[in-house]
């Protein structure tokens, strides 16, 4: 198992090392740390600023988690509603699609303007950028079991609720988790952007401040932390998926 | 044999591009208690639609479905229906999948599982109770689907192409197994198939539907004693049904033939 993990980690390690080496060479050529610091300088400065960075990262994580939680709840509620009320989907889904064409760049400052610098506007931005893939994944997932399954359950005398419980809900989970993984990566970006527009704490705010101070190294350190947070959250949803729907990955449960 | 359930003059319309299309044009059939009646017909003639009506999934435009004298037209949960696909859900273990019908009937989990375990044991699947459906072979999946069907404890069992997805040899094995199990339980049922040999091997009677709009065009009793040998069905009956379907020459004298004005295809006749 450890050997397999090592084999899996090898390609990504190689890619990171190559990219890092390229960056290092470029930085040496540029020879201006304000323009492009070397990776080692970024790591060094990030370590020196670790307490401040940790505080901002925690703030960003808080916004991400709160916004994402709201998003998941809203997505489930909306998807179940669309599923239960025939015709509602045709009314709601086009509006949802349209809502996704509004650039967050335009919307986020307005949301901050309307709701101030507290937690609420940032949670709203995260919700806005993440709930669409969740709703689409859920609405399609709830239909994934297909008409044959509906016929079978109806022939058994199952009520709508029983059909949902025994077939459609579990059948929706694989798509839900796929959507969850996509959405969670948007969530961090959404949180950082909302902070960028106006906040007291958070990686977005931090980046903004350091950019203004020409501390490119610290901006890049914050960027790296964002990426790290995204990867960790992605990994968590992946682990959650394996735990909740092991049957969606037959190779994981295959026995001798 | 007393009629146990009856389909009377059932008409079904489907919406088509140019208005409603008749699919079933007045189907009449009767099944006695403990009898297995097999329905064959040209593909697309409405065999599955007929089962849908009997299962209460479709309300016919006209006609009735009677079960032990009671009108059950358009109401489900009187029969146990096994659709063409096995529909064993990936999120259930074999045991929970087989118990599904009982759980829908609000039987408690423990009892439903215990009863499912008994059926699995009888069907030779007890070793796979905790397996996932994709770990079963095609034949085993069909057996599990049938276990789920009969465990519902309904008075009538409806099988839609139960072995349609199996390869030829597995299918013969499944037929032998179904015939034996059926005999042991004396279930009452209707089996739809496109395989005339299968119908003649399994059925007490074989009904042939005409092309659309379908009516029962021919009814043949299979007198061959049981146990029968799958793969070598009563040749006379097979010939009769195939002749009715227009795929082999009709060797019967004209007065032996069923009146069937809507036989599909071009009947091939010897010169």
UniProtKB/TrEMBL annotation, chain A:
Sorted UniProt keywords: Cell membrane, Membrane, Transmembrane, Transmembrane helix, Transport
Domain ABC transmembrane type-1: 57-237
Keyword Isomerase: no
Pfam families to which the protein is assigned, alphabetical: BPD_transp_1
GO biological process, alphabetically ordered: transmembrane transport
Localization per Swiss-Prot or TrEMBL: Cell membrane
Top-rank taxon: Bacteria
Membrane association type: Multi-pass membrane protein
Transmembrane segments: 58-81, 93-117, 123-139, 176-197, 218-240
One Gene Ontology cellular component annotation held by this UniProt entry: plasma membrane
Main localization (coarse): membrane
Xref: PANTHER family: ABC TRANSPORTER PERMEASE PROTEIN HI_0355-RELATED, ALKANE SULFONATE ABC TRANSPORTER-RELATED, MEMBRANE SUBUNIT
Family of this protein: Belongs to the binding-protein-dependent transport system permease family.
Listed name of the protein: ABC transporter permease
Biological source species: Cellulomonas uda
UniProtKB/TrEMBL annotation, chain B:
SUPFAM superfamilies per record: P-loop containing nucleoside triphosphate hydrolases
Compositionally biased residues, Basic and acidic residues: 249-263
Keywords: ATP-binding, Nucleotide-binding, Transport
UniProt key word Nucleotide-binding: yes
Coiled-coil ranges from the UniProt annotation: none
CDD domains: ABC_NrtD_SsuB_transporters (cd03293)
Annotated InterPro entries: AAA+_ATPase (IPR003593), ABC_transporter-like_ATP-bd (IPR003439), ABC_transporter-like_CS (IPR017871), ABC_transporter_ATP-bind (IPR050166), P-loop_NTPase (IPR027417)
Region of interest (Disordered), residue spans: 248-271
Domain ABC transporter: 7-236
Superkingdom of origin: Bacteria
Keyword Nucleotide-binding on entry: yes
Alphabetical list of Pfam families matching this protein: ABC_tran (PF00005)
Gene Ontology terms for molecular function: ATP binding; ATP hydrolysis activity
Protein's UniProt name: ABC transporter
Organism field: Cellulomonas uda
Lineage of producing organism: Bacteria, Bacillati, Actinomycetota, Actinomycetes, Micrococcales
């Amino acid at each position: 198992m450890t050997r397999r993990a090592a084999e899996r980690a090898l390609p990504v390690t190689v890619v990171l090392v190559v990219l890092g080496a390229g960056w290092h060479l470029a930085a040496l050529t540029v020879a201006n740390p304000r323009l492009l610091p070397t990776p080692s300088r970024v790591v060094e400065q990030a370590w020196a600023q670790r307490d401040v960075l940790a505080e901002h990262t925690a703030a960003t994580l808080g916004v991400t988690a709160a916004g994402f939680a709201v998003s998941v709840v809203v997505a489930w509620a909306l998807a179940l509603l669309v599923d239960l009320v025939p015709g509602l989907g045709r009314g709601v889904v086009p509006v949802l699609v349209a809502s996704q064409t509004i650039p967050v760049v335009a919307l986020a400052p307005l949301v901050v303007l309307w709701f101030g610098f507290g937690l609420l506007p940032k949670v709203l931005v995260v919700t806005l950028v993440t709930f669409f893939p969740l709703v689409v994944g859920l609405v399609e997932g709830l239909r994934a079991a297909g008409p044959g399954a509906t016929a079978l359950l109806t022939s058994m005398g199952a009520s709508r609720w029983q059909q949902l419980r025994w077939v459609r809900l579990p059948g929706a989970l694989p798509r839900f988790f796929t959507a969850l993984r996509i959405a969670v990566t948007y969530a961090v970006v959404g949180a950082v952007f909302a902070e960028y527009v106006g906040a007291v704490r958070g990686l977005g705010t931090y980046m903004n401040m350091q950019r203004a101070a020409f501390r490119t190294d610290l901006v890049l350190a914050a960027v790296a932390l964002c990426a790290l947070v995204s990867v960790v959250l992605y990994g968590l949803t992946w682990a959650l998926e394996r735990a909740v729907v092991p049957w969606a990955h037959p190779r994981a449960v295959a026995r001798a | 044999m007393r009629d146990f359930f009856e389909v009377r003059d059932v008409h079904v319309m489907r919406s088509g591009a140019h208005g409603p299309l008749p699919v079933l044009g007045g189907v009449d059939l009767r099944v006695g208690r403990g009898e297995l009646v097999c329905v064959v017909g040209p593909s697309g003639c409405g065999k599955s639609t007929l089962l849908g009506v009997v299962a209460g999934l479709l309300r016919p435009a006209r006609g009735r479905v009677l079960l032990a004298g009671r009108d059950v037209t358009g109401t489900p949960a009187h029969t146990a229906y096994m659709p063409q696909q096995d529909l064993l859900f990936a999120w259930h273990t074999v045991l929970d999948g087989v118990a599904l019908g009982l759980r829908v009937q609000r039987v408690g989990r423990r009892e439903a599982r215990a009863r499912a375990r008994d059926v699995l044991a009888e069907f030779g699947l007890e070793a796979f109770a905790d397996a996932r459906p994709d770990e079963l072979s095609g034949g085993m999946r069909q057996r599990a689907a049938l276990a789920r069907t009969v465990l519902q404890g309904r008075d009538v069992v409806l099988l839609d192409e139960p072995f349609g997805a199996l390869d030829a040899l597995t299918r013969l094995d499944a037929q032998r197994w179904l015939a034996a199990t059926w005999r042991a339980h004396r279930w009452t049922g209707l089996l739809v198939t496109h395989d005339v040999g299968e119908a003649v091997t399994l059925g007490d009677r074989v009904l042939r539907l005409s092309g659309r709009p379908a009516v029962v065009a021919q009814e043949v009793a299979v007198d061959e004693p049981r146990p029968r040998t799958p793969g070598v069905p009563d040749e006379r009956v097979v010939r009769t049904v195939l002749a009715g379907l227009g795929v082999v020459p009709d060797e019967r004298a004209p007065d032996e033939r069923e009146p069937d004005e809507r036989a599909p295809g071009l009947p091939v006749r010897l010169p």
